[in-house]
Write a structure and sequence with these properties.
single chain; mainly alpha; Rossmann fold; two-stranded parallel ribbon; about 5% strand; globular
């Protein structure tokens, strides 16, 4: 079955939070980027990450737990893919978790709340966490 703009729009809206659903300009820009350079022909290959996530889970979790450089996790709490549940799991696993929870925001905080993401990053850098 062909992936079309209507299906793309429906999928995109499903992962955005209530605070800032995607407007037509955002949808159109992302649809353009997805199609650019023949992206629609290969986008199905990106689903491999689901298998990698299962196969490499222990390795990735261990790397996060043992990480010695400062990390900040900025998460949209309404993200149905990796939102509140991921934040809770991260908090349970990481010895000193630094989590910025964005209420009403979904899977794409950088698009839905760019000012909040930038503020979280700048505060992290100014706090000396980045170096």
């Amino acid at each position: 079955r062909a992936y079309n703009r209507r299906a793309f729009t429906r999928s995109l809206r499903a992962v955005f939070g209530r605070a800032r659903p995607p407007d037509e300009g955002t949808i159109e820009a992302l649809w353009y980027l997805l199609r650019f350079g023949g992206g629609l022909r290969v986008v199905h290959r990106t689903i491999r990450y689901l298998h990698e996530r299962r196969r490499l889970r222990d390795r990735w979790v261990e790397a996060l737990v043992r990480c010695e450089v400062p990390l900040r996790f900025v998460v949209g709490m309404e993200d149905p893919v990796s939102g509140a549940a991921m934040a809770e799991r991260y908090e349970a696993l990481i010895p000193t978790p630094d989590i910025v929870r964005l209420g009403g925001i979904g899977h794409f905080p950088q698009l839905e709340a760019p000012d909040a993401v930038l503020a979280a990053f700048e505060a992290w850098v100014e706090g000396g966490a980045a170096g």
